[in-house]
């Protein structure tokens, strides 16, 4: 019951009829309810004993009651069990949790459940709000019962209290078992499963069964793996209770230690067994800590062979030491098998758990899609990982294994490359030299033919007169013709549909068939294209073959001449017209070469990167090359096309090209080197340097901080900015290449918040340019970083996701105190505090948690995710000593730089009593030098209702330096001071102050080294008889350690000693 006052003013129908009702004794435990009210009234107003209403002339009026909680609380501590005739102590605490004082009576500890009746009591007294009284009594268990000491009994001991106004009463009870007159004991000796002693084990003794309500005592075995529960030092008065013969008292012992599984044992004590020894056996928790793998015979074997991987797993959890094998541990294997029909499979012959050596074997092999003889490429995986999955889930690093097919017999092509001088005329072989570094490679003739289209005399040609020419123009072209001077070219089309000529010196091969012995071609560099230099009058069997090296859509065109037929006119116009080639598979004059059909130098190098074949080389200083291990057919011969060129010249601007078709040779036969009759082929080719006329499209991409599109940084902290530039040849399907050596301009769209280290940057060999952006303005916010490049033909600027964003903010922190809603407020130490930030969807994202300090203070910094300009919520939760839990929060909007205060108020909880530091009483200096004596003091108040002794501590930079035991009476205040020597720390600002069990106060101390002494001493002061000796060095180092000199004096002394 609770004392409760409730007033309600009732207005009646006629003037002057006003009634004030005061209610006391509302029967309302724990929740809102109703009260019975009897009211005596006059003037035509009658009152009935009714619930929630007063009957009166003019109507009925409801009376509501508030939510009222019991204000008195009782707590009782009594031993769970004790022998008959032993002295035990019962302690009862009665607390007033209400807001009003309570006049208490009948404050007793009672044994009525036994035959003892009242055991002890306190006199009637008033308990102030938030205060408590304690009743402690010691009595003999033989006073509880009239029974003799031959059997054990169990009943409750009860502590109770009442309000003198009969408004509230409460009680607490606890069971007590009184045994026989024998005093019992349980001894505990702890070992592991191998019977080895285990020290420092936590042991809990329960009565009857495990459970928090059944705990009798706790202890630790210490260094001797032994513990005895007998009342001597464990708080059990008189020993353990013992049952009668045949009716034993049961006890449970639970032993626990980190790294072991808990173990329990039972003990049964009766008159025939008053002491019992139990031996809990702890099972070590053994988990894998390391894993390794080895491969036999190696990680690369033949296609039909096997690879055995032996995985070893070790643990650091065994008593014998670290790194020992662990058995019966599961091991899993994972890898990616993207080898198509030819798969990598494995078996674990002895299962997938480790043996007694801590090992497990996996055997890997290839399962061919059809037959091993059909596998031409290496079957491999690069991400093979083994994992011990029991416990810590340790894994190996990624490994690679490969199975290499036997590519059969191989042959060799060698030769020499010469470079035709740039100023020579086409078709003339003179002024030759031997270039170094020219790319040379061989392509299987079958692959060459797959990329070849054939043009024959008489193929279809679009020869209509263009609409822009008048009707006076005509042409003698009807279809494709092969006449001296006729010109052909290969083009691709850009995104606008415009033709982009391809260069015959580098982009495609042009040959004539064996049937075209009288058809001679030359390169036409101005078109660029190829031109018929000479032909046979009988052209029926003539044809031209175009072999395309890279992927893309290509069209062959012939130049058509249109003549003005008007008399006296000599106007001639030319246009290129699309040719439909004779080879099947072309569509709309296009020749389509897929990505997998590309046969450029880099494509062939990539294709054979993991093979024994070496079809790529670059020339030596003498122009020589050698192509090795070229596969041959089963009949012993394979034909190749050997190509020189497709590389950059020494100046980096020009390229090596096919010198008038002399830069490649087709149908080169290769025979196995192992064949006694084999002939090694020698191929001599010519290249010519040329300056390509190429139109490029450029692409720019801006990133920040390791390739990200977004970065945030405080003011004055540089952010790395990187621009990646690539270029793609117009009309080509080739992959974009790095755009090297181009100048790029950078701009911040919001240029008020910072600057670039360089606003103009140049790309390196990888097409990458870097600089930094630093926020250097009081203004903060976000900006997009954009890049621009002017190619001379077009200006390229990043847009959308090609840009990157930098968010500049100021350093910030959030601090505050968690306090009650009382006046004045009290700090709530150890409250749980959570920091959350409002995200883009207006939800809260948790960033960090902390626990309030002794004074209820907390702090979140940039390391926790605090920065200016964002919205935060700080929430605190606190549970007081009575189990009341409350929550409070503070909301912060677009916090500025620096420190933002966020005190949090929690309602309906009670701050712990203890030693409080009076606000503003901290006396602490603001400046001092290392080694200087300072005094720090504060006024300390005991907020408890009785005298108490507690520690008061001086703290410097988060570390406890000194403490005092202080005794204060209830409500007493006294000054506590500390004489402190400033620690030998670097110059800077440090927090220092005083802390108690429930409060803290601190100030900032600026520590500055006194340089006067340092300046007064020089290296010469340490000379001995004019010389620097080892004693000089010793003395200088000693003075430096004490702070008397700086390190530079020490360096000078050491240098002088060495020079001696």
From TrEMBL:
SUPFAM superfamilies: Invasin/intimin cell-adhesion fragments. Gene3D superfamilies: Immunoglobulins. InterPro entries: Ig-like_fold, Invasin/intimin_cell_adhesion. This is Cell surface glycoprotein. It comes from Natrinema pellirubrum (strain DSM 15624 / CIP 106293 / JCM 10476 / NCIMB 786 / 157).
